[in-house]
Amino acid sequence: MSEKRVTWAAFFSNMFSSAQLRRALSTPRASRDEEKGGIHVAFVLFLEPKERRGRRFSSLENTLEYMIEAFQPAPALLHCELLVPPASSAEGCKNSFATYIGQKSAWQDKADGFNYYLIENIGRWRAVPIFKHGAADLLRAECDREIGVEYSIARYLTALAPFRWTSKLVSDDRRSPAHCASLTARVLRNSNLHMSVRPSASYGPSTLYRELVHAASLKSYAVDTEDWSGVTSEVEEDLEQLLRGVMSRETIASIGDSGCNEVVRALTLRASSALNKGDDSMRRLTQQQLATALLRWTILRDETSGTDAEQQTLPI
């Protein structure tokens, strides 16, 4: 085994010393193939702000971004959206669901999203896992019900701490106007993936992030215990390729859907472990790596090839 592989193995071993997560990585692939019910995890992506050297507001979007960053609790986050892992069904190509200023909510086009997700905002995405039996199917179905929702800048006012009480006065029904965080919170609630403690209009990206991180932290403790010896050398190689290899369709094809799924599975558990035992830097790093793996897989994947990833279930 190479020095790099040994380093990865030692790193994962340290991250997963928590007994609650050991069984998840030690379960043989064949056993997981026999599990029923589809994919049991979905994700929420959060976008960190760019570094700003000065307060120059050349557009409404820049002004809004500054206000979101300035009036939210740490960590300041500008945007959030939902991501569902690929699946072998006809619905499997529906991966990223979002809304943006001046646009209506929709499943995002991967060709248009390449520059946005993988070039312009590289290294600024974080991913938080949402565990639930059949999470992917539940989330896709609910997102389909929320296609075409009007974007609402005004809902950001109800997400600010001094005005949060007013969130009870605006509609929280399906298809009511929303911004990214209020729409994400509503979809998660109506799909029973996360029961939010407040009206969806009261959330901004940062407040939703803090609540989902807390829920993911508690969920990680529910995984059964068993001895774990670390990720396999094959997963280590695929992980290195997916995170640091050439960013191309050929790279993703060489790893394959099954290999990408195994990497995402390991990084999901690693990020969950960091929530409980890591510091802020480790939490940020593990969430960024998880987001990078997910975005490279979903955007660069050949949708015509089919996948067995739906049978590779993640623990709940």
Could you give the count of β-strands? 5
Overall geometry: globular
Cα Rg:
19 Å
- Derived structural class: alpha+beta
The order of strands across the largest sheet is 4-3-2-1-5
> How much is the average pLDDT?
81
Largest sheet: 5 strands, antiparallel
User: Helical content, roughly?
Assistant: 40-55%
Q: Show unreliable segments.
A: 1-37, 224-229, 307-316
Specify the number of helices: 11
N-to-C order of helices and strands: HHHEHEEEHEHHHHHH
Beta-strand portion reads 5-15%
As for the number of domains, it is 1
Distance from N terminus to C terminus (CA atoms, Å) equals 32 Å
Brief summary of the model shown:
The chain has 316 residues and is an alpha+beta fold. It contains 11 helices and 5 strands, in the order αααβαβββαβαααααα. It has a 5-stranded antiparallel β-sheet.
